[in-house]
Design goal:
The protein is mostly beta strands and 517 residues long. The protein has two domains: 284 residues, Tachylectin-2, Chain A; 178 residues, Jelly Rolls, CATH 2.60.120. Helices cover 5% and strands 46% of the residues. The protein is built from two helices and 38 strands. The strands form eight sheets. An eight-stranded antiparallel beta sheet has the order 4-24-27-37-29-30-31-32, with no helix packed on it. The longest helix is centred in the first third of the chain and has 21 residues. The radius of gyration is 24 Å and the shape is globular. The N terminus is likely disordered.
Length: 517
């Protein structure tokens, strides 16, 4: 009898283990946007059964995330193209300068002859950067710099030659050297699609840009986005049988502003477009759109619409996210879900000075969180998301602010303010464009807990702030932040852990964790 019971328990445990492991697998259908968070300017490739995608993160570092998926729906960040790409005052938040909304833009991702290539332009430096690696997930990357800014450039490798396609309205092509490291002297350099916007109208908020060039079955395809007056962002497709044209074009998709991107196939031969949509304070969110073919033209969507519910293109893979909770206890390096606001000062943060905590030490005197170094961020996500932190404050100095923010140009935060030797919990609302201290509650203990809840439902775009002295009982503080997407930052709101000084440097705080819900 005992033997039978033992066998039964083993079978039961195996069954429970199987149920536990299968429960993390993705559903067979998904809803667009497939990442409910800021992930704009997507470029995607397939290598074997794996898909890789890059996206714009501008002033955040490390920059140009490499995201990986096996099903085009569930993505995780496996690498970044660079830790820092430049080291001037704008990148370092020094001398009143910044690169909000600038930095690296609209990367192009390609794979050719065993090498992965990523190019992007920077509005901050006025240059274009091309990175290469043989291992996209581990690097190392080598970089080359072109001393001109090529707007929204797309790489093309074609019969041993390399090109960048770029520009606005008059879409141009310039040839690179065969190693993709420099402009080729005497190489091709010309407009290939003049007045590219014209197929969509005569008056535009944004003329055709965002080029993605791909060679498919011997044909050249250039995908663009424009924004006709009185309409929404619109996807365009041009094609030609030769490299320099002539190109003919048509409107590929005009649906709710879902536009801008290229197309990719699965190993089984199905095609999809990877586009995105402006979506209020959460940012620009990616949409997966089915593509069929008719007379060598890619046809986007179903009856001219981007479906909001679809079958997952490749089944049987687990759920993955581009954000995650963190206990700060795994290693001396940050998890790849994190990005710093601008270049970090690596001498003033540590995961090893106090193991199990993220220690932030002030290294400059700042006027606000906007010019503070070492603000550590993750994406907010929708329709609702909550960030919760625990932090210890015994190392703070007079004039220091530290806590948890809903971070954009019009930010809000709940945190600790040090005044002399006295501490208070404060809620700050900069929704008007100016930092306003809305509420203040004196407290004396070392450890404190903060929570920020972001509601993006139907672009409600409101953030709510809370504090707790024990991590269990929560009290609302201050008022509601009306979040708004600002062009100066050009990015969706982020959860941000910060510690900055307004009087003298050297104060520190210890963050125990960030929990995301």
């Amino acid at each position: 009898m005992y033997k039978r019971i033992g066998i039964f328990l083993v079978i039961l445990l195996l069954f429970m283990s199987m149920m536990s492991s299968t429960s993390v697998f993705a559903a067979t259908t998904f809803n667009n946007p497939f990442i409910y968070a800021d992930t704009p300017d997507n470029d995607v490739i397939r290598v074997g059964n794996a898909f890789y995608m890059t996206s714009t993160t501008m002033h955040m570092n490390p920059g140009v995330p490499i995201m990986k998926s096996y099903d085009l729906v569930n993505w995780e960040i496996v690498n970044y193209v660079y830790d820092t790409y430049a080291n001037d005052d704008a990148q370092n938040l020094n001398n009143g300068k910044n690169e909000y909304g600038k930095g690296s833009w609209a990367s192009s991702l390609r794979y050719y002859n065993g090498i992965y290539y990523v190019s992007f332009g920077s509005n901050s430096t006025g240059k274009t950067y091309i990175y290469q690696t043989s291992n996209i997930e581990t690097g190392p990357w080598t970089s080359s710099v072109l001393n001109s800014y090529y707007h929204d450039a797309s790489l093309l490798f074609d019969n041993g030659r390399v090109f960048l396609v770029y520009g606005s309205d008059n879409i141009s092509m310039i040839e690179l050297t065969a190693d993709a490291k420099a402009i080729k002297s005497g190489g091709l350099n010309q407009v290939i699609i003049p007045n590219a916007s014209n197929i969509a109208g005569s008056s535009f908020i944004v003329k055709a840009e965002g080029a993605h060039i791909q060679k498919i079955n011997g044909m050249y395809y250039v995908f663009l986005i424009c924004w006709p007056s009185g309409s929404s962002r619109t996807q365009l497709t041009y094609r030609a049988s030769s490299l320099i044209g002539p190109y003919t074009g048509r409107v590929a998709l005009s649906d709710s502003g879902i536009a801008q991107g290229g197309i990719v196939d699965t190993a089984s031969g199905s095609w999809y477009a990877m586009l995105f949509k402006d979506s209020g304070a959460i940012g620009r969110m990616p949409y997966l759109v089915p593509v069929t073919w008719s007379n060598n033209w890619p046809v986007f969507g179903v009856n001219g619409k981007a479906p909001l519910t679809m079958n997952v293109p490749v089944g049987g893979y687990p759920v993955k996210k581009v954000y995650a909770s963190d206990e700060f206890s795994s290693s001396a390096t940050l998890a790849k879900v994190w990005q710093w606001n601008h270049n970090p000062d690596n001498t003033n943060w540590s995961l090893t000075q106090r193991p199990g905590f993220m220690r932030m030490t002030t290294g400059k005197v700042s006027t606000s969180i906007l010019d503070a170094r070492n603000t550590l961020t993750q994406r907010t996500f929708g329709p609702k998301s909550t960030g919760i932190i625990a932090m210890e404050t015994s190392g703070m100095k007079d004039g220091d602010y530290s806590g948890l923010a809903a971070f954009q140009a019009k930010y809000g935060f709940v945190g600790v303010k040090m005044s002399g030797t006295s501490k208070s919990i404060v809620m700050v609302n900069a929704g008007s464009g100016a930092m306003t201290e809305v509420a203040s509650v004196p407290f004396s203990q070392n450890r404190v807990y903060f929570k920020v809840l972001c509601d993006f439902t139907n672009q409600t775009d409101k953030a709510y702030f809370y504090y707790s002295l024990d991590g269990t009982n929560w009290t609302t503080i201050g008022n509601t932040l009306q979040m708004s997407y600002t062009i100066p930052h050009f990015m969706g709101y982020r959860f941000a852990l910060f510690n900055y000084a307004t009087k003298s440097t050297g104060g520190f705080v210890d963050f125990d964790y960030l929990h995301l819900q």
